[in-house]
């Protein structure tokens, strides 16, 4: 395990707390032999919560530089770098499985985004969905045969997306790249992923 991974592991609970507190992480890297984390918190209380966790881990935090500002998030930028970073995170054995991560993104998406994702997954899986053991809510949409509307997408539970994503991935592994391209246009939704996946994405983006 290299130094960056060792430090990320050491401060894992603080990194995982950041998205829970609404902290937008824009950079996680090794800088001057320290873990460098940059982000923006929605409030001083959120920033304080993160710092309290850091001090619980190591009161000296001599191997960490945590640059958290309070205010509008620095965020991650849309574009090809984000798409390729997402693909890497989706395929990594250091992050949750692709269907589980996609379900999380779906949960934080609006109706228009949910409809776009559903239509992409259903088109990618194609005939393999026929006869598949899918939740009733999805089976009814498939029988309709038409494009899913935002209103219909709002009625689909996130766990159903896991089932659909599994079938789509088995039928067409390139769906990961297609979904990555789709969500690269919605960086605010991507920020809902866990700290581990975000750190990997930002590391990839910063290398490009």
**Structural class assignment:** mainly alpha
Report the sheet-strand fraction: 5-15%
Structure summary, number of beta strands: 3
Distance between the termini: 22 Å
Which stretches are low in confidence, meaning pLDDT under 50 for 5 or more residues running?
none
Strand order of the largest sheet: 1-2-3
Task: Give keywords.
single chain; 208 residues; mainly alpha; Alpha-Beta Plaits; 2 domains; 3-stranded mixed sheet; 12 helices; elongated
In short:
The chain is mainly alpha-helical. It is built from twelve helices and three strands; from the N terminus they run ααββαβααααααααα.
How would you characterize the overall build of this protein?
- The protein has about 210 residues and is mostly helical.
- The protein has twelve helices and three strands; from the N terminus they run H-H-E-E-H-E-H-H-H-H-H-H-H-H-H.
- The protein has two domains: about 5-75, Alpha-Beta Plaits (2-Layer Sandwich); about 80-190, no CATH class.
- A three-stranded mixed sheet has the order 1-2-3.
- Helix 5 (about 100-105) crosses helix 9, helix 6 (about 110-125) packs parallel to helix 9 (about 160-170) and helix 6 (about 110-125) packs antiparallel against helix 10 (about 175-185).
- The longest helix has 15 residues, at about 110-125.
- It starts with a helix and ends with a helix.
- The mean pLDDT is about 85.
């Amino acid at each position: 395990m290299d130094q960056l991974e060792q430090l990320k592991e050491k401060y894992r609970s603080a990194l995982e707390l950041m998205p829970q507190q609404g902290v937008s992480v824009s950079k996680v890297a090794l800088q001057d032999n320290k873990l460098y984390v940059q982000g923006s918190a929605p409030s001083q209380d959120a920033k304080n919560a993160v710092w309290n966790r850091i001090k619980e881990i190591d009161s000296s935090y001599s191997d960490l530089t945590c640059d958290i500002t309070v205010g509008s998030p620095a965020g991650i930028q849309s574009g090809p770098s984000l798409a390729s970073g997402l693909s890497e995170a989706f395929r990594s054995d250091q992050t949750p499985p692709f269907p589980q991560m996609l379900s999380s993104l779906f949960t934080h998406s609006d109706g228009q985004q949910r409809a776009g994702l559903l239509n992409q997954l259903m088109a990618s899986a194609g005939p393999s969905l026929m006869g598949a053991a899918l939740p009733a809510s999805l089976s009814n949409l498939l029988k309709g045969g038409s494009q899913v509307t935002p209103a219909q997408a709002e009625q689909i539970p996130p766990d159903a997306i896991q089932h659909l994503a599994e079938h789509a991935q088995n039928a067409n592994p390139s769906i990961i790249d297609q979904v990555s391209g789709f969500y690269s246009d919605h960086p605010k939704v991507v920020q809902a992923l866990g700290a581990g996946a975000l750190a990997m994405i930002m590391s990839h983006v910063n290398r490009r």
